[in-house]
Amino acid sequence: MTIETANIAAGRSRTNDPEATKRNIIEVATKEFAENGLSGARIDEIAAKTKFSKRMIYYYFGDKDGLYLKVLEDCYSRVRATEAALNLEGLSPLEALKTLVGFTFDHHTSNEAFIRLVMIENIHHADYIARSPVIQQLNVTAIDAIRKLYERGVAEGSFRPGLDAIELHWQISALCFFNVSNRATFSAIFKRDLGTSESLARLKEAVVDMIVRYVKAD
């Protein structure tokens, strides 16, 4: 069997599995949107890289906007699913908070496409996220998890009272997000590579420590 024949056969096999087809398209589209933005991404490029036709992409996702929204939903779904698997309720509030912050830092560090997509969506004033009940519900669940964690800590006296769960989520996200979104500019301006394993380890430790100091009871 030639390479060309094998590729054709693989393509036919994938079309017989709609979920695998959609997964492949979303994976390629995630990279395309993250690299080029919503306006710069091209369905032609996505089709070429997946070896599926534009017609099939439109069949599954409607149009480019529909595909972009599915990419956003997929990114948020994956991060929230991994958070849910952390078993925070099985840890003490302090250890659960450290685990959550450390996970968020590691996730953002290893998922630059997610960071770029969030930045792109902010350029669009969150128009697409606002249309998605999927993303809205996912983030309600994330805030509920933080709220429960925080309330457990307050109840046992390890966390100080009076903090807001959404604001706490904001602060965790901000410290972990900036590490990726502004790493290139900081490294260039200050002539120091903040992306080395040593730098990232120090930054992660500092971020966890800052959040713990902020939340911990005196």
UniProtKB/TrEMBL annotation:
Keyword DNA-binding attributed: yes
Record's keyword terms, sorted: DNA-binding
Domain HTH tetR-type: 19-79
SUPFAM superfamilies xrefs: Homeodomain-like (SSF46689), Tetracyclin repressor-like, C-terminal domain (SSF48498)
Keyword DNA-binding: yes
DNA-binding region (UniProt annotation): 42-61
GO molecular function: DNA binding
Pfam families on file: TetR_C_29 (PF17938), TetR_N (PF00440)
Protein name: Nicotinate degradation protein S
Organism: Hartmannibacter diazotrophicus
Taxonomic placement: Bacteria, Pseudomonadati, Pseudomonadota, Alphaproteobacteria, Hyphomicrobiales
Gene name of the encoded protein: nicS
